[in-house]
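User: Here's a chain of 290 residues. Predict its fold as tokens.
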Amino acid sequence: MGDTLSEFAILHFLEVGSATVCYRKSGTGPALVLFHGYPLSGHTWRKILSELGKHFTCYAIDSVGLGHSSSRDAEDFSSEGQARVFSGTLRALGVSSYAMLANNSGGWIARELALLEPDRVRQIVLTNTEIPGHRPPWISLYQRLARVPGGVHIYQRMLSSRMWRRSGMGFGGCFQTPELIETELGREFLAPLLISRSRIALALRFLFSMNFERVDRFEILHRSLTMPVSFVWGSADPTFPEPLAREMASQFPNVVEFRSIARGKLFMHEEFPEAVSQAVLQALGNAAVA
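Assistant: Prediction complete.
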């Protein structure tokens, strides 16, 4: 376990067109690509990496604008642009076939990538991610804020407020245990945004570049994703409610299973890593033999 996590802690960088892509790699076996949510980085998968790495070579990629990935091209921040960048990344790494595990906005990007190169994607596991016709709470407000002059300063002020972080407008709906907002989330992912104006500016660019009208189109586009798809969903998530997720699952032609994680919210892999890793491995195994 120690060697796996030590290997995972190493940051690797690739130049892909106008983008600088940061990724982490660990484990042995078939390729499994992990996509994180907003405003996290690939480091968010560290708690389940020790189990996943026993069965898969894991590639955790930072989304463009988040973590340590960035780009000079505005198109690379869009969901379709992210998919093109990550297609180039995986080709540069010599990954010809892969499964995907994706959370939150990473699940949106993973679906774009599956549309882009369906012959290379073996299977997909989606956890608490965007749903056609549904808008996460406060998303429209924050996208408008990201575009206004002084938005970086305003957003930093909000992030620095303990009251806001713990509120429903902040990250109160992401964890069952509020203390994780101040410890795990704060230390690992919010602190870098608070100390770096460039990092937070990139994060806001990511935010306003994500076009939710594109999400709505996936009600039809899901029909084209014929590879095995599994869902591992936090049952208590107010951001992407499970009943809506179950409705979305019916849009895919090849759903293997839908598993609920009791009490799980948006970032359940941070809070309930054992339950999530077991469910993900089971889903990947079931899809492989389906």
